[in-house]
Amino acid sequence: MSPEPFSTWMAGIQVRAEAALGRLLPAASIAPARLHDAMRYAALGGGKRVRPLLVFAAGEVAGADVDRLDIAASAVECIHAFSLVHDDMPCMDDDVLRRGRPTVHVEYDEAIALLAGDSLQTMAFQLLSEHRLTDDARAQLEMVRILAKASGSRGMAGGQAIDLDAVGKTLTLAELEFMHIHKTGAVIRAAVGLGARCSGSNVLSDVELAQLDQYARYAGLAFQVVDDVLDCITPTATLGKTAGKDAANNKPTYVSLLGLAQAKQMAKQLRQQAVDSLSGFGERARRLTELADFIVQREF
Amino acid sequence: MSPEPFSTWMAGIQVRAEAALGRLLPAASIAPARLHDAMRYAALGGGKRVRPLLVFAAGEVAGADVDRLDIAASAVECIHAFSLVHDDMPCMDDDVLRRGRPTVHVEYDEAIALLAGDSLQTMAFQLLSEHRLTDDARAQLEMVRILAKASGSRGMAGGQAIDLDAVGKTLTLAELEFMHIHKTGAVIRAAVGLGARCSGSNVLSDVELAQLDQYARYAGLAFQVVDDVLDCITPTATLGKTAGKDAANNKPTYVSLLGLAQAKQMAKQLRQQAVDSLSGFGERARRLTELADFIVQREF
Q1: Which pLDDT tens digit goes with each residue over B148-204?
Q2: What tens digit of pLDDT does each residue of B69-100 get?
Q3: Which residues in chain B (90-119) have CB-CB distances under 8 A to chain A?
Q4: In the predicted model, is pLDDT for residue B289 greater than 60?
């Protein structure tokens, strides 16, 4: 039996991810209704769902149950949505457009944006603790720890702080990489780590988990480099968010540091390193390989 | 052997709570330094530590190990500190003074306040997952779930949303109670629930856990009523935060709804109901009883 094409698989996971979040987030009819409405507005209705795709692709390596992957994917996506809501606020990037729609603080107000972001973070940890994701509860606690560490001051939030500090500065390539490893890389690694740990037919060894983590590091960085390239070459209407914003804000990017051609080249190299990390898994890592290709080939 | 007086016990826990947080939070020397500095500023250096006191007092009923209670107490206090940082921000209560010092967004800036609050929330779940708090990992996942549920849109953050919505409105006593049960009550209940679940010499039955939870509901509400009374009768310098702020903001309080004398009377009744919930525990609940007294007798 030949597996379904990547595009079919991807569309299927994107539909699943949307449906799972829709089911797991509190209904907008439940009090406080405006807060729940804002949480749903932030988390539903689009996005590429890269992190859920990574959860499912890593889950395939472990032979994991898709219902459990739904929970893990929703938790990671709640963290991602929370970070976007807070990152768009006036005291941060002050952005008005996200996925082609007004950002949460514009559509609602700043206080609701603050609380919706806070509550989406909380929801992530509630999901990881109230559903059974592995038959080994100690391993499930490890999943909570992985997502927490990736999201906090030494992960994503720390990367945002470094980013704020970098405005108007000239960074070295190493410093830019340090920022992105935290800001976007940490949660991408967590997505792969959680998918790989949802219990399934293959319990992965520590060595295998480390190989998947290495894949995630390279793929995460590739994703960021491509984002910088897209931000530079795509019009706002196509991008669904304000284009050229980083340059306008005098923020360092891979394009500003390396130039466009070299940034594209770097993305391709990182893609190769990501794929090389999967060499031991054979066919089980098909989706992870395809995702690395997808990340780099999105638009160029 | 007669137990140490309440005031000695309380001072000891307050010192422990400060020391544990100081040890568990990332050092201000670790990058991103300004973020870590702000997290420490927000969580250290004062406060009554009511939630850690409740964790330890409930832990005494379970005969729990104090090192494990340190972790649980720090997690709950991180949630509390996070909520204060975000609640003080300009888009929320816009307050400049907390515990007699400038609030985080005044001392640092709004972006750092946002990220420090976010990171303190994350830290709570990291603490509950990376340390061993019970020998039964499934029970520890339940502790994560309890704190997450208490903090999110159907707990504390939800209460803050209801509070925002209430400004300038006339609430009934039932509506005011609904708000406080979420805004402050949920995390107080979680503090008791976590302390009672840290494994110790007495594993508590579901009935006993429910009795402690009932105590926490009454004590939490009493705490809020007393807060409203103190906000009304205490000068700013003594209070350490801006006094009379709720009245000035046209926010409903127990005092505005009931008058001062009746609000005081209500606090005393709630204290009695809290203490009555402990009748089955005898001497093991000594500190919880004393805490109920302390909450109500703080200043009047």
Answers
A1: 999 999 999 999 999 988 888 888 888 899 999 999 999 999 999 999 999 877 789
A2: 999 999 999 999 999 999 999 999 999 999 89
A3: 91-92, 109-119
A4: yes
Using CA coordinates, name the residue in chain A closest to B150: A122
Q: Identify which of B198, B34, B61, B206 has the alpha carbon closest to the alpha carbon of residue B128.
A: B198
pLDDT digits (tens, 9 = 90+) for A209-249: 999 999 999 999 999 999 899 888 876 666 666 666 666 66
Four-residue CA torsion sign, A251, A252, A256, A261: negative
Query: Which residue of A85, A122, A132, A143 is the best one to mutate when testing the B interface, meaning the one whose CB has the most B CBs within 10 A?
Result: A122
| Nearest residue in B to A163, CA atom | B32
Residues in chain A closer than 8 A to B138 (CB atoms):
137
* Two tokens, residue B291: 């805490």
What pLDDT is recorded for position A1?
A: 59
The domain locations on chain A are 6-297
From A112, A122, A152, residue closest to B148, measured CB to CB: A122
Domain B6-297 has CATH 1.10.600.10: yes
Q: What percent of chain B has pLDDT over 70?
A: 94
- Most A CBs within 10 A among B41, B129, B197, hence the mutation to make, goes to B129
* Closest residue in A to B151 (Cα–Cα): A122
Nearest-10 Cα torsion for B42, B43, B48, B54: 140
- Interface contact B138, partner A, CB < 8 A: yes
Neighbours of B240 (CB within 10 A): 16
In chain A, whose CA is at the least distance from the CA of B146?
A126
Q: How many CA atoms lie within 13 A of A268 on its CB side?
A: 8
Vertex A152, ends A147 and A155: CA angle to 5°? 80
Q: Which residue in chain B is spatially nearest to A159 when comparing CA positions?
A: B32
Element (H, E) at B98: strand B97-98
Helix residue ranges per DSSP H, B25-135: 33-43, 50-62, 66-87, 104-107, 110-130
Tell me which residue of B35, B169, B118 sits closest to A113, measured CA to CA: B118
Q: Which of B156, B240, B29 is nearest to A119 (CA)?
A: B156
Check if A32 contacts B (Cβ < 8 Å): yes
Say which of B30, B113, B137 has its CB closest to residue A137.
B137
Q: What is the pLDDT of residue A183?
A: 93
Contact A123 B148 (CB under 8 A): yes
Q: Establish if B299 touches chain A: CB-CB under 8 angstroms.
A: no
Measured between alpha carbons, how far is A248 from A79 in angstroms, rounded to an integer? 27
CA trace torsion A113, A117, A118, A119 (10° rounding): 100
Tell the burial category of A7 from Cβ atoms under 10 Å away from its Cβ (0-12, 13-18, 19+). exposed
- Distance of CA B197 to CAs A93, B58, B141, B271, Å? 42, 9, 11, 23
For residues A112 and A34, the answer to whether their CB atoms sit within 8 Å is yes
Q: What is the value of ipTM here, to two decimals? A: 0.94
